[in-house]
């Protein structure tokens, strides 16, 4: 950390950088494009140290975010962010088409994967308590200086040798995940609100005949909700957290009502009739797990609050892990109660719980469910929109998107520009797009980011912290991912049964060998760390790969289009913007304080 004597000068240097004009003419931009290969190589291989991320990069936002949140705020934010999204959006469609009554098992599998990913997030968030989440964790982790020792994994090594690009790619996918999921949830809010007042789910939407099917039902209530929450989040984080806490308490009580009513009025025979507990087989259970993983989007929002927490080292583990465990238990019980209440083939795919109570004659309960679900959806939207603006703010600090998105309002302590921009983007998508179109692409982006974070944790623990040669860890990660893909594809394509234990046994063997051969330095007692490494991270990697392969081909096609677009944006804008920012910072640092520049701005490149 910097000394108190150097801090004021460093802050003034950052102010000078921020005031430097960054506008470039079109001719200068064309000249910059001619230098793209050189700049691309330099910027893709750039990494930042945790100390730089915590100090230098954070200061680019101007004002600091206000530290007002405590551990119970984080638990409420985690629970509020997840509850409502899964149960009220994905449970019905998954039970009807993929898993049947065994949808609660799908939630267990997805919950285990989310729990392991949450452990990885927790260790990173405690050691690097910044608002960037996975973007920052990946950006400061991968800095590999090795010779390519094997042609078979040259591309894999190159992937992990690109700190800035890996962080940008993950950050862009996280933002897409947030914006799309928030738009989907907002449209679900309209459906449940209609159920609460006893109207048809599409009665408040305006159908436009000239638009393409799936985009032709305009949802103005969803837009109004998003804009209202956007204004609330611009005002204050603490007040938004208090509002979420109140709504979450009522929502948990409401969940208790659904669970008790479901088991009281339901029948166990609905779990086995028609078609048994798993009418679509074991494959259907895992396919359902990949879809309901959408339900666990939200716990990573807690990690983006790191700059607004009074005691991050103690509060973050409680907030992240605790909220995932509570939500997993509630999801399983509520999903089970739905399948006990009505046979799976009679579940409505849009407003599942409201219609289920109508079918057993509890019209009043249907209205209560509609109102409670609407409240839960508001809470989950509030938390998700809180997290997405923090991600964009930190990406803006890195100059990978326009810098004005990184600004923090000094009076409210919130990233005002990022909040408004993403609020408008989310509202635009919610106005047009049906839920079914965006559900699967959300899952693939989420699983990819969680996969990268688990890999980053192993790399950080065994290379960055323990100072082992990176080639050993990279080879292990390459073999682990390859065998995970082999196992998953064999399962999906229903190859001969003996192939599965071969791949499974190989994964266990190489993990045990790696743990025995590559030493790991234990973390200090003052810092929270994932126990029994590398097994939790390895299991998380395997489950994320496995769940990705259960998704359908259109998911990969849409994801491929998105990946091409964000890569093109990085090449045409991000590379040149970060290159200019680095040049300005190096120039200011050399003029003002060469010694500070050497210690604080030593951006490591291969």
Automatic annotation (TrEMBL):
The lineage of its organism: Eukaryota, Viridiplantae, Streptophyta, Embryophyta, Tracheophyta. It is found in: Membrane. The chain crosses the membrane at residues 74-96, 102-121, 142-159, 218-235, 242-264, 320-344, 364-387, 408-431, 437-459, 471-491, 497-518, 530-553, 559-575. This is Cationic amino acid transporter C-terminal domain-containing protein. It is a multi-pass membrane protein. GO terms for cellular component: plasma membrane. The keyword Transmembrane applies. GO terms for molecular function: amino acid transmembrane transporter activity.
